[in-house]
Amino acid sequence: MTDWRDYLERARAYHGHLCSGQILGLRLVLKGLALLGLDPAAPQRDLMLFIETNRCLADAAYVVTGITLGRRRLLVYNFGKAAMTFLDLRTNQAFRVAARSDIRPDKSEKDLVAFWGRYDDDQILSVQKVVINLRPEDRPGKPLRRITCPRCGEDVLDGRDTLVQGQAICRSCAGEAYYQIPEPTPETTPE
Ligand SMILES: [Zn+2]
Ligand SMILES: [Zn+2]
Q: What pLDDT is recorded for position 83?
């Protein structure tokens, strides 16, 4: 049985400090792998991760599994929650593991490793068996779909385009952009 303490140094090095988020994250990820019967020491070829935060906890997923965003085996749904779902692409089995909210060290706690070491997994984590209906375009592998947006001329892969009046365009052009392009400001002459 892999011990989360074996990953503490790697977590500290990768994340920059050792915090409760790292420790909870390591335990949560090891729990997820154990539920799927996956060996943490083996390369994770069939594992896909759905992470519900972009805080500390998310880094622990990389530290344990080595899975990176660019390999298409990690999706971030930033719901602001300390939770992740672990999907085995081979069997389609999936488990969502979340950190329970009732146990937290208070600010004066000096030894976080000892603090979290006092609790069993069932005391700090909750587990749900879930079903993930992964779209074919979201599976790892070559892009199944590519369009060129007729409005901005940029390519859109993986079915991330959207239909507007029967035309496939990119989401930015469809009004879903997360950015604005500022209006050009008229030159002001200093007085
Ligand atoms: Zn942290
Ligand atoms: Zn566009």
A: 97
Among 60, 32, 46, smallest CA distance to 128 is for 32
pLDDT in tens, 47-97: 999 999 999 999 999 999 999 888 889 999 999 999 999 999 999 999 999
- For residue 107, give the H/E element and its range: none
Q: Which ligand is nearest to the CA of 53?
A: 1
Q: For residue 63, give the ligand nearest its CA.
A: 1
* Structural contact between residues 36 and 70, judged by C-beta atoms closer than 8 angstroms: no
Q: Decide: 75 and 27 in contact? Cβ < 8 Å.
A: no
Q: How far apart are CA 68 and CA 61, in angstroms?
A: 9
pLDDT confidence tier of residue 39, bands split at 50, 70 and 90: very high
Give residues whose Cβ lies within 5 Å of ion ligand 2.
149, 151-152, 170, 173
| Per-residue confidence (pLDDT) for residue 139, from 0 to 100 | 87
* Domains, in order of start, for the chain: 4-136 (3.30.1330.130), 142-191 (no CATH)
Q: pTM to 2 decimals? A: 0.88
